[in-house]
Design goal:
It contains one helix and ten strands. The chain is 26% helix and 32% strand.
Length: 133
């Protein structure tokens, strides 16, 4: 019959030491969190500034490269002389609205919900967003 091992008295001492260490770690975390809250209350400078929220005018649905025209589905009215910003994955430029068409007829003002043809200076792609500049 094999002999039974005696429990060593060291194991009993290690368990409370771990508990004390854990308690110290938790206490340190609390102190750090309290310090962070104090700094936040005092108005510490934020890492990022909030970007200006641009107003979305519409979305590019198609582009005709030979005539350099974009088809735009409007979400708000648009008029000749307005400045727009077209922004997409590889596109970003400002432009004045100089020529607009609706069903191949030149127009001065486009209403919400219409799909218009807009003469553009640079290449645009489908799903590029059109913002008010």
């Amino acid at each position: 019959m094999p002999k039974k091992k005696k429990k060593s008295p060291l194991k009993k001492k290690r368990a409370p030491a771990k508990k004390k260490l854990i308690k110290k770690m938790v206490a340190k975390k609390k102190i750090v969190r309290k310090a962070a809250k104090r700094v936040a209350k005092k108005g510490a400078p934020k890492a990022r500034k909030a970007a200006k929220k641009e107003k979305i005018i519409g979305v590019v649905t198609h582009y005709f490269p030979k005539v350099r025209a974009a088809v735009i589905k409007l979400k708000v009215p648009l008029a000749l002389g307005d400045t727009v910003k077209i922004k997409g994955h590889t596109t970003e430029f400002l432009q004045d609205v100089t020529s607009m068409q609706l069903d191949h007829v030149p127009i001065d003002v486009a209403k919400k919900g219409q799909e218009i043809g807009l003469l553009v200076d640079s290449r645009v792609r489908q799903h590029d967003m059109v913002y008010q500049a």
